[in-house]
Request: fold
Amino acid sequence: MMKNILKSLVAGQTLSESEMQAAVSAIMSGEADAAQIGALLALLANREPTVDELVGVARVMRRFVLPVEAPDEVIDTCGAGGAGSRLFNISTTAAIVAAACGVPVAKHGNRAVTSRSGSADVLAALGVNVEAPPAVQTRCLQEINICFAFAQRHHPSMKHVAAVRTSLGFATIFNLIGPLTNPAGARKQLAGVPRPALTEKVLAALVRLGAARAMVVCGVDPLEGNLCELSLAGKTHVSLFDGTESRSFALVPEDVGLKTQSSESFCVDSPEASAQIVREVLAGKKGAARDIILLNAGAALWVGEKAKSVREGIKKAAVAIDKGAGAHTLNELVRMTNAS
Reply:
């Protein structure tokens, strides 16, 4: 089976959803050997994935996931990664602010691969126990509207591909799957991707997988290049699904009441430096770092149906930060994940 799939890829063909499911099932079950896994990932990396291929991978990953019990309205703010960003952890901070506004967030994330600080890295630096088990995650969602779902712990079958991915040294299709495989089964997503061409494809995959509401973004930054979040320094390519129809457009900060600003002031070189900016933003410090969090939290509130627009979401996020609700949510996440 795997040999025939590899022959198809060598011949320049794309894979159907069922073929992709068969290939990934062989990997996740330990049936495929390292040479076959490496060949599959390398051949797929030569081009952008199709929607069928993304959906095929995601369906198998969802079958093998260690789940988290969560409310139906739960959202995620997961970025695909792979953009090599030096920025502080924007989607993680936006998740905390969205939770402080009443949106349940199961933040799916991992350690850094190409960036300076992954979501697991910054949360650990902030004192959160990122290894908290699913029962604790569920309790956090119930009581403070947020949990962290550490990808390494929720996708144990990825152990079969981990060594090969490390040896390859380049981004593979698995780098794009995080937003499609939330352990809490989130059907509302703010997802970031590293290339504009992927926004419509990942959105289409989310809709096929049953999304109720989704926004897929790729920001453009003059200093950093592409971002897996909405950009404060330039335009953002947006593809969204409002539950009825999908559309794509470009957005700049001025469209939602903010000013275009450089990202230079919130570039970091470590999780500790990122954590410091997170604390400052949640403490109410004004500036560009706060504004990019307002922008992304505003989008998360639209996804979570707590705001009718990103502009309205920005206003609600600002109120939550200034009232100390964001800082309180983080403090409670630290306390609850470390409780014996």
Observations:
- The beta strands are 75-76, 105-109, 146-150, 188-192, 213-221, 225-227, 236-241, 246-251.
- The mean pLDDT is 94.
- The longest strand covers residues 213-221.
